[in-house]
Amino acid sequence: MSTKELTTWGIHGGKTGDADKLFLKGYIGIGWKDMKDLSNIKPPTREAFKKEVAKCYPGSNSHSVGNNAGQLFRFVHEIKVGDIIIYPSKKDRKVHIGEITGAYEYNNKLEPGYPNIRPVKWLCSYPRTHFTQGALYEIGSLLSLFQVKTYTDEFLAAVQGEKPTVISEKDDTVNLVAEEIEQTTYDFILKRLSQELKGHPLTHLVAHLLEAMGYRTRISKEGPDGGIDIIAHKDELGFEPPVIKVQVKSTDGSVGDPVVSSLYGKVDNGEYGLLVTLGAFTSQAKNFAKNKSNLRLIDGSELVELILNHYEQLDSRYKGLIPLKRVYIPELIEDLE
After folding, report:
1. How many CB atoms lie within 10 A of CB 252?
2. Cys-Cys link to 50, which of 69, 87, 154, 290 (CB 3.0-4.6 A)?
3. Which architecture characterizes domain 8-166 according to CATH?
4. How far is it, in rounded angstroms, from Cα 113 to Cα 13?
5. Structure pTM?
6. pLDDT digits (tens, 9 = 90+) for 16-33
């Protein structure tokens, strides 16, 4: 098998591996059954596919339409006979590697949920433990069909029966994977907060978090509030210290020194000031707060940490807004040298 001008693709068989039987019969397939025969889309361009996806799935946002159309177009027009396909099966927990042997076909008889198919010759299969963590992460893409680029050589070597280099404690792959998963989670949470809780609704989330930490809160009415959005305290009546005056900014940008110093000017003796933002703070704002023992700044990243630390205590409305699943990821390995 020549690897010259070879493209390596990855494919998934549905969330639960429901296409597994079809795949291991000698085909790969993708869903979108409502699209019917994809070879009828003319002209054979990405833009034409976008129009058909938008027509077939009204209500989809532009990002979703673009993603779906791109996968469909690639399956029909970009995958070539001789290309390599990688299928990580959820049924047998093996990674199957094959070669595309034919052109696109529409066949809703073999597996009705996956009528868009291409024939494939499976060359080999290995347990997932055969591959490095980075290779497994690359074929764990969220897309149904995707191009494999970074670890192509490792998968091609597996076809030749070669074992990849075993990960040692000095291998950075585990660290990179863990960091990327963590960063993806942070980005997801911040994006959801920015899209769904602009303005006063974010104040309610911050108050809810403070309550999860054991504080009682009073939220100011929406509108002019003198810079104070929440009053937090430990006792029922709010007479006993500490009393915390909280200002919440739902901006994605940077909060500067004027906003921070303005809040601090409203903090009396024996009180504390807390400024929470989805974005970041300028260096001037940080310098202003650095030596103030009763002033605390929480940026977007720290807010996400608080959400993760108290996620189980959140109300169902916020869990629905930020749906997260508990998983274990490799622990970051410190380089001792």
Report:
1. 15
2. 69
3. Roll (3.10)
4. 11
5. 0.56
6. 667 888 888 889 988 888
